[in-house]
# Entry
Amino acid sequence: MAVRAKITNIRPDVQRLIYLMTALCCALFLAQCDTHVPVKKTPPPSLFPESRIVSPSTPIQPSVETQIDEIRSLYRALRLSGKLRYDIFRKAMIGHGRIGFKRTDIITIVDYTRPSAEKRLFVIDLKTPRILYHTHVTHGLNSGFIHARNFSNELGSKQSSLGFFKTAETYFGRYGYSLRLDGLEPGINDLARKRDIVIHGAPYANPANIAKYGYLGTSWGCPALPEDTTGLIIDAIKEGSCLYIYADDQTYLSHSAFVERRRESGGECQF
# Structure
């Protein structure tokens, strides 16, 4: 009662201030009681999809950015100028370094920017380095007449496919000693084995046809070779080496996961 009497003797304006401050303190206290500091949890590690590209254990080009000079030097050492555009060679070598091949010593390049009357297949020994074979090769019947213009991955299309392939096992078929191919680019050439796209020799691939007609015959999509060199070439490239078939096809260039798209000045670059 004494305390209450003391409070009642305080001036009304001071009493209201005391009540207001008391209420404010109580509100702050209750708010502090309701507040809690959340426990920080370590976020789970991000899950990334497994890559479909098998990285080679000792790639020839471990870093594209630092190997351009090496590729250009190799191009000069092989004396390919005038025979094979540098930009095609560069794309082949960079893709070769990005894909894991069982055999890294050999690369085969088919240049479908050239007509069938010209030698457009190169088998290159990367260790020596030297060109082992430079010869003629056919394209698919429905890809074009003298020039290969149209390409497909579809069964029954009778067209050539572009991109990176891995050479596989040999067998004896309709055209004798032949080599199976596995396409490495989904949607571009991965149906090569189902389509029976193989390397084989054929009479319509012999240079005698060029002398007689001015061009080679066409296949049903296979890169067929002159009969006198077929066996030698198959033995040189079989069982896990890289085959790169190229043409100036914008659909392929824009969809391939392995093609280097960066422009580089000089060296006969066009793409």
